[in-house]
Amino acid sequence: MHEASIACSLLDLAEQYCVKNNYHTINSLTVRIGKLSGVMPDALIFAFDVVKHDSIAEGAHLIVEQVNPSGMCNDCKKDFTFDAPYIFECPLCGSTSFVITRGRELELTEMEVDI
Ligand SMILES: [Zn+2]
């Protein structure tokens, strides 16, 4: 269960931040997940709902924002986005020489807390 360990790490990160800043309750967490990260949003939300018990995030919602992957072509030099788990060629010119620039991220972007 890949998502379970990610949910634990997210919760740890959020709790550490709250302890440091003296926040006592987490109401919601927003994470941004690239579609190439291999993380299933539903599984992550499910896992988070399990690990949040008896923590300061017990009543928190996990909000997942998915990011479409994007890349940059080495031949036509253009940026492109795509909506698939993989890509074999530049959708603009068909070149197979490109770099993936976004889509693998997993970031905690927002947190709503009570003091
Ligand atoms: Zn191209």
Descriptive overview:
The protein has 115 residues and is of the alpha+beta class. The chain has a single domain (2-114), classed as hypothetical protein PF0899 fold, CATH 3.30.2320. It is built from 2 helices and 6 strands; from the N terminus they run αβαβββββ. The strands form 2 sheets. It has a 3-stranded mixed β-sheet with strand order 2-1-6, with helices on one face. The protein has a 3-stranded antiparallel β-sheet with strand order 4-3-5, with no helix packed on it. β1, α2 (41-51) and β2 form a beta-alpha-beta unit. α1 crosses α2. The protein is elongated and about 50 Å long. The mean pLDDT is 94. The structure holds zinc ion. Zinc ion binds next to loops.
Averaged pLDDT, please?
Answer: 94
Question: What count of domains describes the coordinates?
Answer: 1
CATH class: Alpha Beta
Number of strands: 6
List SSEs in N-to-C order.
Answer: HEHEEEEE
Give a quick account of the main beta sheet: strands, pairing sense, barrel closure.
Answer: 3 strands, mixed
| Class by alpha and beta content | alpha+beta
> What's the CATH topology name?
hypothetical protein PF0899 fold
Radius of gyration: 17 Å
Strand content: 25-35%
Number of helices: 2
CA-based shape: elongated
Spans with pLDDT under 50 lasting ≥5 residues?
A: none
Shape-level CATH architecture = 2-Layer Sandwich
Bound chemical compounds? zinc ion
Q: Into which percent range does the helicity of residues fall?
A: 25-40%
Q: Distance between the terminal alpha carbons, to the nearest Å?
A: 33 Å
**Sequence of strands across the biggest β-sheet:** 2-1-6
